[in-house]
Amino acid sequence: MINITKKKLNYVSSELDIPVQHFILIHDGAKQSTLLSHVNLFLYRCTRASLKTSSRYASAISMFYRYLSTQKEFLNRAPSLYYLFATNKNINRWQTSRERRRVARNAVSPSTETIFEDAKLLMNFFRWLGDAGFATSVNIQLRTWIPPYKSSRYQQYVSLMAKNVIDATSISVLDKLNRQSSYSGLVSPGEIRELLENYNDPVYSALFYFALGTAMRPMDLCKFPYFGNGENRHIMPFSSMNLDLPTTQYTINDSKGKKTRTIIIHRDALKDLEENYIAPYYAERAKKYLNIYGKKPPLSILFLNKDGHPVTPDKIASRTTAAKKKILKTNPNLRPNLRFYDSRDWWPTQYLIRCFGDELLKSNEGLYNLAIAQILQSQMGHSQLKTTFTHYIDMARVVLSIHKGRRTEILKAADYKASDFIGLLIKIEDESEISPRQAD
Protein backbone atom coordinates (compact mmCIF):
# COMPACT_ATOMS: atom_id res chain seq x y z
CA MET A 1 0.00 0.00 0.00
CA ILE A 2 1.35 3.42 -0.93
CA ASN A 3 2.08 6.17 1.59
CA ILE A 4 0.25 9.47 1.21
CA THR A 5 0.94 12.52 3.37
CA LYS A 6 -1.83 15.02 4.11
CA LYS A 7 -0.33 18.48 4.60
CA LYS A 8 -1.95 21.80 5.48
CA LEU A 9 -0.94 24.87 3.48
CA ASN A 10 -1.30 28.55 4.42
CA TYR A 11 -0.40 31.09 1.74
CA VAL A 12 -1.57 34.11 -0.22
CA SER A 13 -3.29 32.98 -3.42
CA SER A 14 -1.77 34.68 -6.48
CA GLU A 15 -5.11 34.21 -8.21
CA LEU A 16 -7.27 35.76 -5.49
CA ASP A 17 -4.67 37.90 -3.69
CA ILE A 18 -6.04 36.81 -0.32
CA PRO A 19 -4.77 34.39 2.37
CA VAL A 20 -6.07 30.85 1.85
CA GLN A 21 -5.59 27.57 3.66
CA HIS A 22 -6.38 24.02 2.66
CA PHE A 23 -4.87 20.53 2.69
CA ILE A 24 -2.90 18.87 -0.10
CA LEU A 25 -1.92 15.24 -0.70
CA ILE A 26 1.63 14.08 -1.45
CA HIS A 27 2.56 10.57 -2.62
CA ASP A 28 5.67 9.46 -0.73
CA GLY A 29 7.47 7.22 -3.22
CA ALA A 30 10.58 5.15 -2.66
CA LYS A 31 12.79 7.57 -4.60
CA GLN A 32 10.81 10.80 -4.68
CA SER A 33 7.64 12.45 -3.45
CA THR A 34 4.97 13.54 -5.92
CA LEU A 35 2.19 16.07 -5.56
CA LEU A 36 -1.21 14.62 -6.49
CA SER A 37 -1.92 17.64 -8.64
CA HIS A 38 -5.53 17.02 -9.70
CA VAL A 39 -6.56 16.24 -6.14
CA ASN A 40 -4.73 19.29 -4.84
CA LEU A 41 -6.31 21.55 -7.44
CA PHE A 42 -9.72 20.27 -6.33
CA LEU A 43 -8.87 20.88 -2.66
CA TYR A 44 -7.84 24.44 -3.50
CA ARG A 45 -10.85 25.19 -5.68
CA CYS A 46 -13.56 23.59 -3.57
CA THR A 47 -12.45 23.30 0.08
CA ARG A 48 -10.42 26.41 0.91
CA ALA A 49 -13.42 28.02 2.62
CA SER A 50 -13.29 25.52 5.49
CA LEU A 51 -10.20 23.76 6.82
CA LYS A 52 -12.35 21.06 8.41
CA THR A 53 -14.07 20.36 5.08
CA SER A 54 -10.70 20.31 3.35
CA SER A 55 -9.42 17.78 5.88
CA ARG A 56 -12.46 15.51 5.38
CA TYR A 57 -12.12 15.49 1.59
CA ALA A 58 -8.36 14.99 1.71
CA SER A 59 -8.75 12.05 4.12
CA ALA A 60 -11.45 10.36 2.03
CA ILE A 61 -9.50 10.69 -1.23
CA SER A 62 -6.30 9.54 0.49
CA MET A 63 -8.03 6.41 1.82
CA PHE A 64 -9.44 5.62 -1.64
CA TYR A 65 -6.07 6.09 -3.34
CA ARG A 66 -4.35 3.84 -0.82
CA TYR A 67 -7.02 1.21 -1.49
CA LEU A 68 -6.50 1.50 -5.27
CA SER A 69 -2.77 0.91 -4.82
CA THR A 70 -3.56 -2.60 -3.50
CA GLN A 71 -5.60 -3.52 -6.58
CA LYS A 72 -3.98 -5.51 -9.39
CA GLU A 73 -4.95 -3.13 -12.18
CA PHE A 74 -3.29 -0.19 -10.39
CA LEU A 75 0.02 -1.83 -9.41
CA ASN A 76 1.93 -0.29 -12.33
CA ARG A 77 0.08 3.01 -12.48
CA ALA A 78 1.36 6.27 -11.03
CA PRO A 79 -0.82 7.52 -8.15
CA SER A 80 -0.96 10.92 -9.83
CA LEU A 81 -3.01 9.23 -12.60
CA TYR A 82 -5.37 7.23 -10.40
CA TYR A 83 -8.13 9.78 -11.03
CA LEU A 84 -8.00 8.87 -14.74
CA PHE A 85 -8.43 5.10 -14.37
CA ALA A 86 -10.65 4.75 -11.28
CA THR A 87 -14.19 3.54 -12.03
CA ASN A 88 -17.52 3.29 -10.27
CA LYS A 89 -16.76 -0.38 -9.63
CA ASN A 90 -13.60 0.61 -7.71
CA ILE A 91 -15.64 2.94 -5.50
CA ASN A 92 -18.20 0.20 -4.86
CA ARG A 93 -15.52 -2.33 -3.94
CA TRP A 94 -13.77 0.21 -1.71
CA GLN A 95 -16.95 0.58 0.34
CA THR A 96 -17.28 -3.18 0.68
CA SER A 97 -13.60 -3.57 1.63
CA ARG A 98 -14.05 -1.07 4.49
CA GLU A 99 -17.09 -3.02 5.68
CA ARG A 100 -15.07 -6.25 5.57
CA ARG A 101 -12.26 -4.78 7.65
CA ARG A 102 -14.76 -3.47 10.18
CA VAL A 103 -16.37 -6.90 10.53
CA ALA A 104 -12.94 -8.55 10.73
CA ARG A 105 -12.16 -6.37 13.76
CA ASN A 106 -15.70 -6.83 15.12
CA ALA A 107 -15.64 -3.04 15.49
CA VAL A 108 -18.38 -0.41 15.51
CA SER A 109 -16.53 2.08 13.32
CA PRO A 110 -16.46 3.22 10.65
CA SER A 111 -20.23 2.95 10.61
CA THR A 112 -22.19 2.13 7.48
CA GLU A 113 -23.28 5.77 7.36
CA THR A 114 -19.66 6.99 7.54
CA ILE A 115 -18.58 4.62 4.76
CA PHE A 116 -21.37 5.87 2.53
CA GLU A 117 -20.72 9.56 3.34
CA ASP A 118 -17.03 9.14 2.48
CA ALA A 119 -18.05 7.63 -0.87
CA LYS A 120 -20.27 10.67 -1.50
CA LEU A 121 -17.29 12.96 -0.87
CA LEU A 122 -15.32 10.93 -3.39
CA MET A 123 -18.10 11.26 -5.98
CA ASN A 124 -18.07 15.03 -5.49
CA PHE A 125 -14.36 15.00 -6.34
CA PHE A 126 -14.98 13.07 -9.58
CA ARG A 127 -17.94 15.31 -10.41
CA TRP A 128 -15.65 18.35 -10.14
CA LEU A 129 -13.06 16.68 -12.41
CA GLY A 130 -15.70 16.23 -15.09
CA ASP A 131 -17.04 19.77 -14.70
CA ALA A 132 -13.50 21.16 -14.89
CA GLY A 133 -12.87 19.35 -18.19
CA PHE A 134 -10.57 16.58 -16.92
CA ALA A 135 -11.02 13.05 -18.23
CA THR A 136 -12.28 10.49 -15.71
CA SER A 137 -13.66 6.96 -15.89
CA VAL A 138 -16.17 7.51 -13.09
CA ASN A 139 -19.72 7.96 -14.37
CA ILE A 140 -21.08 10.73 -12.18
CA GLN A 141 -24.48 10.53 -13.84
CA LEU A 142 -25.11 7.23 -12.12
CA ARG A 143 -26.39 7.21 -8.56
CA THR A 144 -23.65 6.37 -6.08
CA TRP A 145 -23.88 2.66 -5.37
CA ILE A 146 -25.09 1.84 -1.89
CA PRO A 147 -24.01 -1.62 -0.72
CA PRO A 148 -27.06 -3.73 0.28
CA TYR A 149 -26.10 -3.67 3.96
CA LYS A 150 -29.41 -5.16 5.11
CA SER A 151 -29.22 -8.09 2.72
CA SER A 152 -28.48 -11.36 4.54
CA ARG A 153 -26.54 -12.61 1.50
CA TYR A 154 -24.36 -9.50 1.52
CA GLN A 155 -23.70 -9.84 5.25
CA GLN A 156 -22.77 -13.50 4.81
CA TYR A 157 -20.40 -12.51 2.01
CA VAL A 158 -18.70 -9.85 4.13
CA SER A 159 -18.35 -12.22 7.10
CA LEU A 160 -16.92 -14.93 4.85
CA MET A 161 -14.35 -12.55 3.38
CA ALA A 162 -13.33 -11.39 6.87
CA LYS A 163 -11.41 -14.64 7.25
CA ASN A 164 -9.74 -13.93 10.57
CA VAL A 165 -13.09 -13.78 12.37
CA ILE A 166 -14.75 -16.83 13.90
CA ASP A 167 -18.03 -15.26 14.93
CA ALA A 168 -18.37 -11.78 13.46
CA THR A 169 -21.15 -9.56 14.68
CA SER A 170 -23.57 -8.75 11.86
CA ILE A 171 -23.38 -5.42 10.08
CA SER A 172 -26.75 -4.29 11.42
CA VAL A 173 -25.72 -5.06 15.02
CA LEU A 174 -22.41 -3.24 14.57
CA ASP A 175 -24.29 -0.19 13.31
CA LYS A 176 -26.60 -0.28 16.32
CA LEU A 177 -23.58 -0.48 18.63
CA ASN A 178 -22.05 2.46 16.79
CA ARG A 179 -25.16 4.56 17.38
CA GLN A 180 -25.13 3.61 21.06
CA SER A 181 -21.44 4.42 21.50
CA SER A 182 -21.84 7.75 19.72
CA TYR A 183 -24.25 8.99 22.39
CA SER A 184 -22.55 11.85 24.15
CA GLY A 185 -23.85 12.86 27.55
CA LEU A 186 -22.27 15.35 29.91
CA VAL A 187 -18.62 14.50 30.45
CA SER A 188 -18.17 13.52 34.09
CA PRO A 189 -15.79 15.25 36.51
CA GLY A 190 -13.89 11.97 36.81
CA GLU A 191 -13.44 11.74 33.03
CA ILE A 192 -12.23 15.35 32.98
CA ARG A 193 -9.66 14.60 35.66
CA GLU A 194 -8.37 11.53 33.83
CA LEU A 195 -8.04 13.37 30.53
CA LEU A 196 -6.17 16.26 32.14
CA GLU A 197 -3.73 13.84 33.75
CA ASN A 198 -3.04 11.80 30.62
CA TYR A 199 -2.29 14.32 27.89
CA ASN A 200 1.35 13.97 26.83
CA ASP A 201 1.75 17.74 26.43
CA PRO A 202 0.57 20.31 29.02
CA VAL A 203 -0.74 22.58 26.27
CA TYR A 204 -3.64 20.17 25.64
CA SER A 205 -4.52 20.05 29.33
CA ALA A 206 -4.49 23.86 29.39
CA LEU A 207 -6.68 23.96 26.29
CA PHE A 208 -9.17 21.51 27.78
CA TYR A 209 -9.22 23.47 31.03
CA PHE A 210 -9.79 26.72 29.12
CA ALA A 211 -12.54 25.11 27.04
CA LEU A 212 -14.37 24.06 30.21
CA GLY A 213 -14.60 27.71 31.22
CA THR A 214 -15.41 29.23 27.84
CA ALA A 215 -17.27 26.58 25.77
CA MET A 216 -15.12 27.49 22.76
CA ARG A 217 -14.77 25.05 19.90
CA PRO A 218 -11.29 23.67 19.13
CA MET A 219 -11.13 25.78 15.95
CA ASP A 220 -11.75 28.92 18.03
CA LEU A 221 -9.37 27.95 20.84
CA CYS A 222 -6.53 27.53 18.35
CA LYS A 223 -7.04 31.14 17.22
CA PHE A 224 -7.08 32.59 20.74
CA PRO A 225 -4.30 35.24 20.73
CA TYR A 226 -1.32 35.89 22.96
CA PHE A 227 -2.08 39.60 22.49
CA GLY A 228 -5.36 40.53 20.81
CA ASN A 229 -6.14 43.47 18.55
CA GLY A 230 -9.21 45.39 17.40
CA GLU A 231 -12.22 44.52 19.54
CA ASN A 232 -9.98 42.01 21.37
CA ARG A 233 -7.14 44.45 22.09
CA HIS A 234 -7.76 44.00 25.83
CA ILE A 235 -6.86 40.27 25.58
CA MET A 236 -3.34 39.52 26.84
CA PRO A 237 -1.72 37.45 29.61
CA PHE A 238 -3.80 37.86 32.77
CA SER A 239 -1.07 39.63 34.78
CA SER A 240 -0.99 42.37 32.12
CA MET A 241 -4.75 42.88 32.04
CA ASN A 242 -6.73 45.40 34.07
CA LEU A 243 -9.97 43.62 34.92
CA ASP A 244 -12.34 45.27 37.38
CA LEU A 245 -15.25 42.90 36.72
CA PRO A 246 -15.43 39.11 37.22
CA THR A 247 -15.86 38.57 33.46
CA THR A 248 -14.73 40.09 30.20
CA GLN A 249 -15.92 39.76 26.62
CA TYR A 250 -14.10 38.16 23.72
CA THR A 251 -15.12 38.33 20.07
CA ILE A 252 -14.74 35.15 18.04
CA ASN A 253 -14.28 35.86 14.35
CA ASP A 254 -14.62 33.45 11.45
CA SER A 255 -16.00 30.62 13.57
CA LYS A 256 -18.15 27.74 12.35
CA GLY A 257 -20.14 28.86 9.34
CA LYS A 258 -17.86 31.93 9.04
CA LYS A 259 -19.88 33.58 11.82
CA THR A 260 -18.77 36.15 14.39
CA ARG A 261 -20.04 36.21 17.97
CA THR A 262 -19.10 37.64 21.36
CA ILE A 263 -18.69 35.38 24.39
CA ILE A 264 -18.10 35.80 28.12
CA ILE A 265 -14.81 34.72 29.73
CA HIS A 266 -14.36 34.61 33.51
CA ARG A 267 -11.23 36.41 34.69
CA ASP A 268 -10.15 33.31 36.60
CA ALA A 269 -10.18 31.29 33.37
CA LEU A 270 -7.62 33.74 31.99
CA LYS A 271 -5.66 33.56 35.23
CA ASP A 272 -5.57 29.76 35.07
CA LEU A 273 -4.47 29.93 31.44
CA GLU A 274 -1.47 32.06 32.40
CA GLU A 275 -0.56 29.86 35.38
CA ASN A 276 -1.04 26.53 33.60
CA TYR A 277 0.48 27.36 30.23
CA ILE A 278 1.72 30.88 29.46
CA ALA A 279 4.05 31.40 32.43
CA PRO A 280 5.68 27.95 32.56
CA TYR A 281 5.77 27.03 28.85
CA TYR A 282 5.13 29.80 26.32
CA ALA A 283 8.59 31.48 26.25
CA GLU A 284 10.44 28.21 25.64
CA ARG A 285 8.03 27.17 22.90
CA ALA A 286 8.23 30.59 21.26
CA LYS A 287 12.01 30.06 20.93
CA LYS A 288 11.40 26.70 19.23
CA TYR A 289 8.93 28.39 16.88
CA LEU A 290 11.64 30.96 16.00
CA ASN A 291 14.15 28.20 15.25
CA ILE A 292 11.66 26.35 13.03
CA TYR A 293 10.03 29.21 11.13
CA GLY A 294 12.81 31.83 11.28
CA LYS A 295 10.62 34.42 12.96
CA LYS A 296 8.89 34.98 16.28
CA PRO A 297 5.36 33.58 16.62
CA PRO A 298 2.77 36.21 15.68
CA LEU A 299 0.83 37.71 18.57
CA SER A 300 -2.31 36.12 17.12
CA ILE A 301 -0.97 32.66 18.07
CA LEU A 302 -0.87 31.58 21.70
CA PHE A 303 -1.00 27.79 21.81
CA LEU A 304 2.19 26.00 20.71
CA ASN A 305 2.95 22.33 21.23
CA LYS A 306 6.13 21.07 22.89
CA ASP A 307 7.95 21.08 19.54
CA GLY A 308 7.09 24.73 18.87
CA HIS A 309 4.40 24.17 16.23
CA PRO A 310 0.99 25.91 16.46
CA VAL A 311 -1.73 23.68 17.87
CA THR A 312 -4.47 22.79 15.37
CA PRO A 313 -7.93 21.22 15.82
CA ASP A 314 -6.60 17.99 14.27
CA LYS A 315 -3.76 17.88 16.80
CA ILE A 316 -6.22 18.43 19.64
CA ALA A 317 -8.34 15.53 18.38
CA SER A 318 -5.38 13.17 17.89
CA ARG A 319 -3.82 13.98 21.29
CA THR A 320 -7.19 13.48 22.99
CA THR A 321 -7.54 10.10 21.27
CA ALA A 322 -4.03 9.14 22.45
CA ALA A 323 -4.85 10.20 26.01
CA LYS A 324 -8.08 8.23 25.88
CA LYS A 325 -6.28 5.08 24.71
CA LYS A 326 -3.81 5.50 27.56
CA ILE A 327 -6.64 5.78 30.09
CA LEU A 328 -8.47 2.73 28.69
CA LYS A 329 -5.49 0.53 29.56
CA THR A 330 -6.18 1.07 33.26
CA ASN A 331 -9.84 2.07 33.12
CA PRO A 332 -11.75 -0.01 30.55
CA ASN A 333 -15.01 1.61 31.67
CA LEU A 334 -14.08 4.96 30.13
CA ARG A 335 -16.56 5.97 27.43
CA PRO A 336 -14.96 5.12 24.05
CA ASN A 337 -16.67 8.11 22.41
CA LEU A 338 -15.27 10.69 24.86
CA ARG A 339 -14.11 13.75 22.93
CA PHE A 340 -12.37 17.04 23.60
CA TYR A 341 -15.52 18.65 22.21
CA ASP A 342 -17.45 17.45 25.29
CA SER A 343 -15.70 20.15 27.32
CA ARG A 344 -18.10 22.69 25.79
CA ASP A 345 -21.05 21.41 27.80
CA TRP A 346 -19.86 22.55 31.23
CA TRP A 347 -20.12 26.31 30.77
CA PRO A 348 -23.84 26.30 29.84
CA THR A 349 -24.61 23.70 32.51
CA GLN A 350 -23.06 25.76 35.28
CA TYR A 351 -24.56 28.98 33.90
CA LEU A 352 -28.10 27.60 34.01
CA ILE A 353 -27.65 26.27 37.54
CA ARG A 354 -26.56 29.74 38.57
CA CYS A 355 -29.54 31.34 36.84
CA PHE A 356 -32.33 28.97 37.93
CA GLY A 357 -31.12 27.02 40.96
CA ASP A 358 -33.73 24.66 42.41
CA GLU A 359 -36.26 25.76 39.79
CA LEU A 360 -34.49 23.38 37.41
CA LEU A 361 -35.97 20.40 39.24
CA LYS A 362 -39.51 21.57 38.50
CA SER A 363 -41.45 21.49 35.25
CA ASN A 364 -40.03 23.11 32.12
CA GLU A 365 -43.04 25.41 32.05
CA GLY A 366 -42.01 28.94 32.91
CA LEU A 367 -38.28 28.19 32.74
CA TYR A 368 -37.70 29.51 29.23
CA ASN A 369 -36.10 32.92 29.39
CA LEU A 370 -35.26 34.71 26.15
CA ALA A 371 -32.37 36.77 27.55
CA ILE A 372 -30.70 33.71 29.11
CA ALA A 373 -31.30 31.69 25.95
CA GLN A 374 -29.65 34.38 23.83
CA ILE A 375 -26.57 34.42 26.07
CA LEU A 376 -26.36 30.63 25.73
CA GLN A 377 -26.77 30.85 21.98
CA SER A 378 -24.00 33.42 21.65
CA GLN A 379 -21.62 31.51 23.93
CA MET A 380 -22.18 28.21 22.14
CA GLY A 381 -22.53 29.54 18.60
CA HIS A 382 -25.68 27.51 17.92
CA SER A 383 -28.37 28.55 15.45
CA GLN A 384 -31.40 27.01 17.20
CA LEU A 385 -32.23 29.20 20.19
CA LYS A 386 -34.88 27.16 22.01
CA THR A 387 -33.33 23.78 21.17
CA THR A 388 -30.02 24.90 22.69
CA PHE A 389 -31.78 26.19 25.79
CA THR A 390 -33.82 23.01 26.34
CA HIS A 391 -30.82 20.73 25.78
CA TYR A 392 -28.71 22.41 28.44
CA ILE A 393 -31.60 22.76 30.86
CA ASP A 394 -31.78 18.94 30.77
CA MET A 395 -28.03 18.64 31.40
CA ALA A 396 -28.13 21.06 34.34
CA ARG A 397 -31.09 19.18 35.79
CA VAL A 398 -29.12 15.92 35.64
CA VAL A 399 -26.24 17.44 37.62
CA LEU A 400 -28.56 18.67 40.36
CA SER A 401 -30.47 15.38 40.47
CA ILE A 402 -27.37 13.19 40.71
CA HIS A 403 -25.98 15.28 43.58
CA LYS A 404 -29.33 15.87 45.24
CA GLY A 405 -28.00 15.48 48.78
CA ARG A 406 -25.36 18.17 48.21
CA ARG A 407 -27.50 20.48 46.11
CA THR A 408 -26.99 23.48 48.39
CA GLU A 409 -23.22 23.33 47.94
CA ILE A 410 -23.60 23.06 44.16
CA LEU A 411 -25.93 26.06 43.99
CA LYS A 412 -23.47 28.14 45.98
CA ALA A 413 -20.60 26.93 43.80
CA ALA A 414 -22.40 28.03 40.64
CA ASP A 415 -20.86 31.48 41.13
CA TYR A 416 -17.40 29.97 40.73
CA LYS A 417 -15.50 29.65 37.48
CA ALA A 418 -16.28 26.42 35.63
CA SER A 419 -13.12 24.59 36.73
CA ASP A 420 -13.80 25.32 40.43
CA PHE A 421 -17.38 24.18 40.00
CA ILE A 422 -16.23 20.89 38.48
CA GLY A 423 -13.60 20.56 41.21
CA LEU A 424 -16.37 20.72 43.80
CA LEU A 425 -18.24 17.91 42.04
CA ILE A 426 -15.07 15.81 41.95
CA LYS A 427 -14.71 16.37 45.71
CA ILE A 428 -18.33 15.34 46.29
CA GLU A 429 -17.91 12.20 44.16
CA ASP A 430 -14.66 11.28 45.93
CA GLU A 431 -16.31 11.68 49.34
CA SER A 432 -19.28 9.59 48.26
CA GLU A 433 -16.93 6.70 47.50
CA ILE A 434 -15.73 6.57 51.12
CA SER A 435 -17.72 4.07 53.17
CA PRO A 436 -19.13 5.12 56.56
CA ARG A 437 -16.58 2.94 58.33
CA GLN A 438 -13.72 4.52 56.39
CA ALA A 439 -15.08 7.95 57.17
CA ASP A 440 -14.93 7.21 60.89
The order of strands across the largest sheet is 1-2-3
Describe the main β-sheet briefly: 3 strands, antiparallel
Strand-pairing-aware structural class: mainly alpha
Q: Name the beta content range.
A: 5-15%
The total count of helices amounts to 18
Low-confidence stretches: 164-171, 435-440
From the spread of the alpha carbons, the general shape counts as globular
H and E order: EEEHHHHHHHHHHEEHHHHHHHH
Specify the helix fraction band: 40-55%
DSSP, total strands: 5
**Gyration radius, to the nearest Å?**
25 Å
State the domain count: 3
* Terminal-residue CA separation: 63 Å
Mean pLDDT, all residues: 84
Task: Give a description of the structure.
This protein has 440 residues and is mainly alpha-helical. It folds into three domains: 3-181, no CATH class; 189-330, hpI Integrase, Chain A, CATH 1.10.443; 344-439, no CATH class. It is 52% helix and 8% strand. It has 18 helices and five strands. The chain has helices at 37-47, 51-68, 82-85, 88-105, 112-131, 152-161, 171-181, 189-198, 202-214, 218-221, 267-293, 313-330, 346-356, 370-380, 385-402, 407-413, 418-432, 436-439, and strands at residues 3-12, 19-28, 33-35, 247-252, 261-266. The strands form two sheets. A three-stranded antiparallel beta sheet has the order 1-2-3. A two-stranded antiparallel ribbon has the order 4-5. A hairpin with an 8-residue loop joins strand 4 and strand 5 (261-266). The longest helix has 27 residues, at 267-293. The radius of gyration is 25 Å and the shape is globular.
